[in-house]
Amino acid sequence: MAELTDAVEATRTVPLGERDDLRVALRATMIKRIEHLEAFDVVFDLFFGDVRPAPASATAAAAGDDAFAALSDEGLAGVLRDAVLAGNRPVLRRISAAAVDRYAEMEPGRPVAGRAYLFRVLRRLDLENLVAEDPGGSGALADRLRRDRIEATVAYVQSAVELEIRRRLVADRGAEAVARLVRPPLHDAIGFMNASSAEIAAMRRGIAPLVRKLGLRLARQKRRGRPGRLDFRRTIRSALSTGGTPVQLRFKPPAKPKPELIVIADVSGSVATFARFTLQLLYAMRLQFRRIRTFAFIDDLVEVTDVLANSVTAEQAFATITADPRLIWLDGRSDYGHALETFDARYASSALTGTATVLILGDGRNNYRAAQEDRLRLLARRVAHVFWLNPERQVNWDTGDSAIHLYAPYCERVVECADLAQLRDFADRLV
Q: Is residue 242 part of a domain?
């Protein structure tokens, strides 16, 4: 409600006919996290998709558009270069519209193909060469500032082309049809299993505040914990200095039972992204447990507790873990059965206790090898809880080489953790 109130107040101070000013005002009042900017821009363009900025003179605008349309490809490229170097954004908007007319090859009624249209236009405009051809770059501050301004202007041209394509798609197909295909997912709704490198980078930016928030919340819970039992001896000793008036009660430190956490993580290529983010969250939660022991496997299992403890960041720890050659025993393909067998033989006697919670991280795809689910059954008998976090969507469980149905009966819960939102929800429940 506070953001909406601020947004309404902001619209009273900017002219509603100025699209760019309105966009900036709503951005400033409604968006709190940088990773939400792209989604906001798409929604803004869809909502106002059939609204063009009102030109100062319709006759002048039409004459300018006709002039750009009459130019050859080389002539249009020259005007574009001059406008970029001059930072002339009104002209750049009209050039962007002319470029969409000329290069996008949009046909009314065809299925929405916004990215294809955008690729065609940007390929013909060749904006990267505008930056490369800039005569600056000697290292002087003025040259650096000039280059930064040109790069910002080129980025503006790209966004102007995308906006023009989106506006025309909305006018032709309607906002709802376009929204279903061009709306970008928020970082916490991106699936771990099929995220691109750019989406993984966005997720990394998104998990950092989540880790800090979780760590601060756990620290506050620890500080605000209920006091322990009354310490009669300390209370009387404190009261001697005041003759017992007033009496200040003294309490013993609370003896909070801290469970042990055992993490068994598949770090093979198919689920490596999920394992990385999960270990990052567990790194923030480590003070909530008496002890955390972490084991990683691909087709063989090794303990990596010391790696996590001695690494400066969780990212550094994960890089060290995945580079360990001991994780590969046979062919480097996930083997849950052999990992459970190795854990039972090497570590179960020292790691498992009656208060321990076991987290297994992985998709359960065993490459058609022996599942050895009896090993998990024996493990579950010796600990308090067993949770399995599966990064696959539940509709894909038990398909192909998935053995999750063999392991599920021995887990307290098998939890779908396909994106950051689901992983965050599980972490909240765990602590």
A: yes
CA distances from 182 to 46, 114, 160, 170, 307 (A): 10, 7, 16, 11, 42
In degrees, rounded to 5, the angle at the alpha carbon of residue 248 between the alpha carbons of residues 243 and 249 is 125
Alpha carbons within 13 A on the beta-carbon side of 388: 24
Cβ of 282: how many Cβ atoms within 10 Å?
23
Please report the pLDDT score of residue 187 as a whole number: 67
Compute how many other C-beta atoms are within 10 angstroms of the C-beta atom of residue 343.
Answer: 22
Maximum Cα–Cα distance across the chain: 100
Residues 267 and 248 placed together within one structural domain of the fold: no
Kindly report, residue by residue over 227-250, the tens digit of the pLDDT: 567 777 887 778 777 777 677 777
pLDDT at 388: 94
- The whole model's pTM is what? 0.60
Token digits of residue 378: 């024996």
pLDDT at position 290? 74
Domain presence at residue 354: yes
Last residue of a domain, one of 127, 155, 184: 184
- 260-266 and 291-297 beta bridge pairing: parallel
| Together in a domain, 270 and 370 | yes
Separation CA 88–CA 150 (nearest Å): 11
Quote the pLDDT of residue 54. Answer: 45
Tokens of 256: 């909070």
- Looking at this protein, which amino acid is placed at residue 112? V
Range of the domain at 247: 226-255
**Count of residues in the chain:** 431
Q: Measured between alpha carbons, how far is 314 from 285 in angstroms, rounded to an integer? A: 12
Asked whether the CA dihedral 406, 276, 208, 44 is positive or negative, the reply is negative
Q: Residues in the chain with pLDDT < 50?
A: 53-63
Same domain, 124 and 233: no
116 and 219 belong to one structural domain: no
Helices and strands of the chain, counted as H and E runs:
20, 6
- In this structure, the answer to whether residues 251 and 112 fall within a common structural domain is no
Determine the Cα–Cα distance for residues 291 and 259; give it in Å rounded to an integer.
7
